[in-house]
Amino acid sequence: MSSVVARAIRAGYQDREVLRGVDLVARAGELVALVGPNGAGKSTLLRVLGGLLRPASGSVTIDGVDIATLDRRAIARHIAVVPQVFETLFPFTVREIVALGRTSRLGPLGTLGSDDARAVARALDDIGATELAERRIDRVSGGERQRAVLAMALAQEAGVLLLDEPTAHLDPMHQRATLDRVATLARVRGLAVVAVLHDLNLAAAFASRVVLLANGAVVRDGAVGDVITPELIGRVFGTGLRVVAHDGRPFVIPEPASVEERHARAG
Amino acid sequence: MRTVTVFALLAAALVVSAAAGILVGAVAIAPGDVLAALFGAEGTNGTIIRELRLPRVLGAALVGAALAAAGALLQGMLRNPLADPFVTGTSAGASLGAVLAVALGLEPALVPLAAFGGAIGAIALVWRLARLGGRTTILTVLLAGVVLTSFAGALVTFILVSSDRLSLRLRAVLGWLQGGISVISWNELAVVAVVVAIGIIGAVLLAPRIDAYAFGEETAAALGIDLDRTTALVLATTALLTGAAVAIAGLIGFVGLVIPHALRFLLGATHRRLIVASIPAGAIALVLADLGARTALAPAELPVGVITGLVGAPFFLALLVRSRRVIV
């Protein structure tokens, strides 16, 4: 059971400041959705949370321990990052990919023990990928590859799970399956999960809390119905998105541009 | 099971190719006489076998093993099969170090160390240049490698022509540069063997961490890899292996490219298995290539680099065409 707390994070690249004082908390059992327009700083915040980008100021703590005091190996035992899936040219099997999740627990000679094999088997089972284990990662479908890297992160047995647009290249059915799985894991295993999501409707359906980011700052942090409102969505994303309520949940629907709008753009 | 079969076949092929390398040569010697010479018989045959063929076969085996292991390491870290010590400019840097050492009149046993110095300077520079864009990609590594290879080559030629010590032996030096296994003494072989052994142990120890690069550097870091430290260790190990190989064999291209790539089809991608298999496979490849170099135009000798180049360059191009969609 872990929680991750980011306080007053300022961070960026070279001369460009992306995050201007961001606070974020994810407690055990929560799925926090990070939403906002392109360039808002969502992915940068995720990199800071994962210890992959050192903030210019501010701190990230896991159960009270500042991750700036930990080395990469120690951080990886507390925080798992699910990568956006790239192609790999090498014929790793799915099981070998999942076993990469145990990298931070390699022995001095680079060997894995029976504990590690068990963790890999369990992660494959959790994600329903056991039957894929001996398949080659470069020969499975996009959805299956997504499951493999999710299992890899689970095999890390970290209390915090970070996902950067886990549904980016998936069809609607696999988007739902992935987030449903992640939400269940957060609840059942008590993981603290932070996921960058582009799709506001997916965030509304699966998140326990939504953090809306714009221009490197938190606009609102709260329950789905408090963040995905007509007023806030209009202010942050601009006009053209209609927010309607259905079954007690907000839905965001894109509207075609009006004739006047098109004229204004052309003009 | 498959792994066991592949390793058994490699072991058998290593024994057969080493035997062939010792039995066959420009001078015909009967197998019985070869055996007698190996066990100490005096005379011309003894000299040919013990002082020429045996060190040469061992030298070729060491060079092949070193280059193949170095290639597997580099390919793993760049997660692309287009890398090896030759195309990254590491070999050219090593040859510059070695030529400089000879031109300055250093002890022959120090040549492998000078080659190592040149190799580590070259690969560190290539990495530095390739990182300018923010992340290391195969394309920038290859470009930097090309530039460095021609720059080091120009310096080598300049040194060769301007050094009295070297210009007298121009033909021999040029033969070595083209990739000729020229083992001068058992002492030199011993130095190289020790360096290669250290490099191979390093490569095998690093291998599981290289696996973590399967989805790139950022993911490797997230999995717990200290990128700066691991990169430094991989580059140093590569330089050690390349320096040793270049010191006795000059510029031999593509062994480090072809061998790991071919083995991946048989053994899969995990790097410990791949690197361990690359050692005998690289040795076999170069012992056979050297045998071809010695016998194809006997009594004249081809540089072995000619043979590896003829086989390896088309292979590289085929690989380039097939993997172009993921080259960056």
What does this structure look like?
The complex is a heterodimer of chains A (267) and B (328). Chain A has a six-stranded mixed sheet with strand order 6-7-8-3-9-10, with helices on both faces. Chain A has a single domain, classed as 3-Layer(aba) Sandwich (Rossmann fold), CATH 3.40.50.300. In chain A, strand 4 and strand 5 form a beta hairpin. By secondary structure, chain A is of the alpha/beta class. The termini of chain A are far apart. The model of chain A has no long low-confidence stretch (mean pLDDT 91). In chain A, helix 4 crosses helix 5. The longest helix of chain A has 18 residues. Chain A is built from ten helices and twelve strands. Chain B has 328 residues and is mostly helical. Chain B has a single domain, classed as Orthogonal Bundle (ABC transporter involved in vitamin B12 uptake, BtuC). Chain B is globular, with a radius of gyration of 19 Å. The two termini of chain B are 36 Å apart. The mean pLDDT of chain B is 88. Chains A and B meet through helix 2 and strand 6 of A and helix 9 and helix 10 of B.
Structure in a nutshell:
The complex is a heterodimer of chains A (267) and B (328). Chain A is 35% helix and 27% strand.
| Class derived from helix and strand content of chain A | alpha/beta
Q: Can you tell me the CATH superfamily of chain B? A: ABC transporter involved in vitamin B12 uptake, BtuC
Number of domains of chain A: 1
What do the pLDDT scores of chain A average to? 91
Shape of chain A: globular
Any low-confidence stretches of chain B, pLDDT <50, length ≥5? none
The 3D shape of chain B can be described as globular
What is the level 1 CATH name of chain B? Mainly Alpha
Mean pLDDT of chain B: 88
Order of helices and strands of chain B: HHHHHHHHHHHHHH
Number of helices of chain B: 14
In CATH terms, what is the architecture of chain B?
Orthogonal Bundle
